[in-house]
């Protein structure tokens, strides 16, 4: 069974000091690097949040405060601080992440009108990112998933992976939650297990 490691959004804005820093984010980088060193993967894919500056998920572009919610093109949208803007330092992968073994990069969140938490598709399920096509082209059947943040982009990438027919495993030690609400991370784990994701300690 061919397997791939999917590394979700280990970017400066989600790490310590970033515009949307995930608590404990930097702790996952050595774990992810060790996974790549100690395991044989047929593919290693990086996902990258890659927003235009006028993206409508940003509170600043809607005259809203960070943390408010709006309905954006028919789906609820949390209002985020400006983050991972195309071509900025914040959108770059963290310097400590070993990218030498990465075989492919998937950029997401490029459409101004709709956010894209999942590495597979936007939140409206209108536009695919090309990740599923890439994995199927390479006959990948098993996905191991790590990265940021557990309760958003990692969660939706995992669930879409299951729904796309992959055996899907989340490395718990390779992810951290935003925890906008204190229980978000815990609830995300529960949701993923319910959907068929295997959580590895």
TrEMBL record:
The signal sequence is none
Q: Which SUPFAM superfamilies match?
A: Isochorismatase-like hydrolases (SSF52499)
Q: Which Gene3D superfamilies match?
A: Isochorismatase-like (3.40.50.850)
The answer to whether UniProt assigns keyword NADP to this entry is no
Q: Which UniProt key words apply to this protein?
A: Hydrolase, Metal-binding, Pyridine nucleotide biosynthesis
Under the heading NCBIfam families, the entry gives: PRK11609.1
Pathway listed for it is:
Cofactor biosynthesis; nicotinate biosynthesis; nicotinate from nicotinamide: step 1/1
What GO molecular function annotation could you give as one example from this UniProt entry?
Answer: nicotinamidase activity
* Annotated protein name in UniProt: nicotinamidase
Which Enzyme Commission numbers does its entry carry? Answer: 3.5.1.19
Family classification: Belongs to the isochorismatase family.
- Domain Isochorismatase-like: residue ranges: 4-199
Q: Which organism is it from?
A: Chryseobacterium salviniae
